[in-house]
Amino acid sequence: MDNDQEVSGEASLLDPSKYLKLKPKKSILKQPSAEESKRIAEDRAHFDEMNIIATHHPADKDYGHMKIQEPKTPYHGYSDSEDDGDNHATRAPRRVSLVGAVDPVKLTKSIEAGTSIPPAYLEKNIPDDDSEIELTPEQIAHKCEFEKKRKMHYNEGAALLRAKELLAKNEENME
């Protein structure tokens, strides 16, 4: 008997593929017992689908959806026959005129001088909506004060840079 075991043991040592075919004696994962599986099944939620359908989706239930009957929006499509009328003959084609947009003499002078032409909107005196003529003296004073505060606010960054430069110069002078 020992010889049989030794022979089979030697054969198994020589052929490890036999070990792959064997099932383990005990599984690593715990298998639930029959009592536990019944208890787990009882603890789970059960849904009676027919009861849900009967209570929440009865055949005679109205879900509040309304069918709104509205007439369609009238749409008048474009047709070529509209252009063939008398209106087409009276309409002149649109033309763009660039006369006066750029003065060639001013342009040559500014190019020679190395400066650019100031924008046309700066040359024309178009009154703003906030015209000072319509404002009361109090409103004018308030507007001026606001503009000063705005300029101070936007110049704070430049002031900080100047302050840093002054501090750097003072430190260099101290050394």
From TrEMBL:
It comes from the Eukaryota. InterPro entries: PPI-2. GO terms for molecular function: protein phosphatase inhibitor activity. Residues 57-70 have a biased composition (Basic and acidic residues). Residues 56-94 are annotated as: Disordered. GO terms for biological process: regulation of signal transduction. Belongs to the protein phosphatase inhibitor 2 family. This is Protein phosphatase inhibitor 2. It comes from Cercopithifilaria johnstoni. The lineage of its organism: Eukaryota, Metazoa, Ecdysozoa, Nematoda, Chromadorea.
